Amino acid sequence: MAQDATLTLNSGQAMPVIGLGTWQAPAGQVGAAVKTALENGYRHVDCAAVYGNEAEIGAVFAEAFSSGLVKREDLFVTSKLWNSEHAPSDVRPALELTLKELRLDYLDLYLIHWPQCFAKESEGNRSIPKNEDGSIKYDLATSSQKTWSALEACVDAGLTRSIGLSNFNSEQIAGICEGARIKPAVLQVEIHPYFSQQPLVAFCQARNIVVTAYSPLGTGAVIDGSTVVGNPTLKEIGEKYGKSSAQVAICWLASRGLVVIPKSVTPARVLQNREVKFELSAEDIAKVDALNKDCRNGWGGPLSADGSPRDIAHPLYPFGAGRPAF
User: Fold this and answer.
1) For labelling alongside 52, which of 156, 236, 280, 285 has CA 20 to 30 A away?
2) What is the DSSP string of 14-48?
3) 207-221: string of b/e by CB count within 10 Å (b at 16+)?
C-alpha cells in the first residue's frame, strides 16, 4: 500500500487512508503527537469534542499553517458531534465551538459520534448530564434523522465538507440514508483483527460509504491470553515482512479498503503506524481474517454491574441485546 494512499468519498473528497487517532491521547501529550505526525507526513487527524483535547490540537494546527509545514487544503480533519448536542438547534453551535478550538474555518468530515442522545444541560459541546442516582439523563425526543438534517445544513453553510456517522448499526445507517438529502460519506466503527466487522463493512461498501476503523490495534482486547499487538500469528507474519504486529494489523485493515486511525503519543510508534508500504499475501490475509472472534471492546461508556452497556436503556443505543446483529 502506498504511504500516501487515499480513498474517494461520495462527496468527491480524497480521504487519507492512514490518520492519527486522538482518543485517549492525554492533555499535554496529544499536541506533541500531532506535531510529530504532521512533521512526518500524516495529513489526516481524527478528533472529537468529547475527547477534550481539540484546543491543544488546534494550537498545533495554527503553528503548522503559519510555519508552512502544511497547508490547510492538504490536511484532512475529522471531528464528531457529541451525544448532548443532537437537538437540531445545538448542532451548528457545537460544530462552531469545535472549529474555534481547532482554529479552523471548516472541517473535512463531521460525524454523529453515537446515535443515542443525552439531555443538553450545560454550556459547551461535550456534556455528560446525570440524574441524581448517577445514571445518564437522556433526550428521548430527538431522532437521528432530525440531527442529520442539521448536519446537512452545516454542509450548506460551508462549515464541513462531508458528514457521516460513528457507532451506528446497519438498520440505523439505512434509516439515515433513506431520508437523507446528503448521504453519509463515512461510517467510523471499532474494527481490529479480533473484531473484523465483515458484514457491516460489506453493508457500507455496497452503499458507497467509506468505513474508518478506530481502535485498530484492539485497545487492550484480549483473546486466548494475547492482545492484538502481542498475538503470535501477527508476530509471525510480521517477521516475514520485517514489520511489527501492529503494522501487520494496520496493513490488513487498509487492504480491506478501510481508513485506519491508530492512536499513539509515542513518537516512534506514531511514525511506525504509518510505515505500512507493503502488501500482505492472500495467505497471510486469510490468517488475519481467521483471528476474528467478534470481540467488541468499546461500548460507549462503562459496562453496568450485570455486564450490559451503560446506554442500553436508550432506544437508539446501537449494540447489544435486542439490537441488529451488525
Assistant:
1) 156
2) EEESB-EE-TT--TTTHHHHHHHHHHTT--EEE--
3) eebbbbbbbbbbbeb
Q: Catalytic residue at 51?
A: yes
DSSP symbols for 214-274:
ESTTGGG-EETTEESTT-HHHHHHHHHHT--HHHHHHHHHHHTT-EE--B--SHHHHHHTT
- Give per-residue pLDDT as tens, 37-87: 999 999 999 999 999 999 999 999 999 999 999 999 999 999 999 999 999
Q: Can you say whether the dihedral through the CA atoms of 221, 225, 229, 234 is positive or negative?
A: negative
Please identify which of the residues 42, 51, 110, 194 carries the catalytic annotation. 51
Going from the C-alpha of 7 to that of each of 12, 39, 68, 183, 254, the distances in angstroms are 10, 22, 25, 16, 10
Phi-psi label, residue 11: left if phi above 0, alpha if psi -120 to 50, beta otherwise: alpha
* H or E segment to which residue 111 belongs: strand 107-112
Give kind and range of the element (H or E) at residue 186. strand 186-190
Give the amino acid at 130. Answer: K
C-alpha cell at 248: 501487520
Burial of 125 (0-12, 13-18, 19+ CB in 10 A): buried
pTM beyond cutoff 0.90: yes
What is the distance between the terminal CA atoms of the chain, rounded to a whole angstrom?
Answer: 28
Q: Residue 302 gets which letter from DSSP?
A: P
Predicted confidence (pLDDT) per residue in 97-140, tens digit: 999 999 999 999 999 999 999 999 889 999 999 999 999 999 99
How does residue 2 score in pLDDT terms, banded at 50, 70 and 90?
Answer: low
Q: Which three cell numbers stand for residue 174?
A: 439505512
Contacts of 12 (CB under 8 A, 6+ apart): none
Q: Which of 96, 89, 17 is CA-nearest to residue 277? A: 17
Task: Give the three cell numbers for residue 316.
Answer: 437508539
What's the whole-number mean pLDDT along residues 205-211? 98
For 28, the grid coordinates are: 499535554
Sheet containing 20-21: give its strands across. Answer: 20-21, 44-46, 76-81, 107-112, 160-166, 186-190, 210-214, 259-260
Q: What's the pLDDT score for residue 321?
A: 87
